[in-house]
Amino acid sequence: MRTVQINYTLFGIAELEDEAVEKAYTDWLAKGQEYPYAAFSGNTLEAFCNLFRVVCTYYCYDSQTYRYRFHTKYEESTEELSGIRLRTFIYNNFHYGLYYPKTYWMKDNKKKRKSRISVVSECPLTGFIMDEIMLQPLMEFLQHPDKRNFKELMGDCLEAFFRSCRDDCEYCESEEYFKDESHRRNWEYLKDGTLFKETA
User: Fold this and answer.
1) Same domain, 129 and 85
2) Closest CA relative to residue 89, chosen from 53, 63, 119, 115
3) CB 183 within 8 A of CB 14
4) Phi first, then psi: what are they for 69, rounded to 5°?
5) 88 lies in the same domain as 150
6) Residue 25 belongs to what domain range?
7) Of the four, 61, 89, 104, 122, which is 20 to 30 A from 187 by CA?
């Protein structure tokens, strides 16, 4: 029996030549990358549907496309509400889910109190940034009501959500994201761009 010791020269992603980076990126893509924020996005979609009594079915998205179907659990007369009447309906029925009391912190940042008057709406569904993206059409409507009805407004919110998920998936498969991920995880490579896996 004999023991052979091999020495490797390892490089960070920023130290590789362009061709090696391309190989490392291609190898990473070939392994198939799952969308890292799928669970957070799913929570936002679920919270939105529960709040507004919307059923979203047959949906999927990836870095290229998205599709979905939806219907509401309201009667047609409610779905057809528009303009000022729709804004009033939304404020009366969903205000509690869209706004929460503003928090004021004392000077020492140890004590806080919640306002009884001022309210805010910052990621109100789950605390994830996708809340803001999904609710943007609704918040714009509340500021300036237009001719859209309730069902169209819900469709616009879902469209904004799935479009953003697709765009985010596309970014998470980009070379820029790969480089950031490689740097963050301290991955090391051989000179030709092969990922180094240390065996113990």
Assistant:
1) yes
2) 53
3) yes
4) -130, 150
5) yes
6) 1-32+187-200
7) 61
**What residues contact 148, with CB distance under 8 A and at least 6 apart?**
82, 86, 141, 156
Residues 164 and 133 reside in one and the same domain: yes
Q: Which residue has the tokens 């729709």?
A: 86
Q: What is the pLDDT along the chain (200 residues), one digit of tens a residue?
A: 777 777 878 888 888 888 988 988 999 888 887 888 999 999 999 999 999 999 999 999 998 999 999 999 999 999 999 999 999 999 999 888 887 666 666 777 777 666 565 555 667 888 888 999 999 999 999 999 999 999 999 999 999 999 999 999 999 999 999 999 988 988 888 888 888 876 54
User: Around Cβ 182, how many Cβ atoms within 10 Å?
Assistant: 21
Q: What is the C-alpha to C-alpha distance for residues 20 and 198, in angstroms, rounded to an integer?
A: 19
Instruction: Using the structure block, give the residue that is written with the tokens 């820029």.
Output: 176
Per DSSP, 74 falls in state S
Looking at the structure, do residues 163 and 200 belong to the same domain, yes or no?
no
As a whole number of angstroms, the distance between CA 104 and CA 163 comes to: 35
- The two structure tokens encoding residue 48: 């939105």
198 three-class SS? coil
Token pair listed for 15 = 């130290």
Domain count, the chain: 2
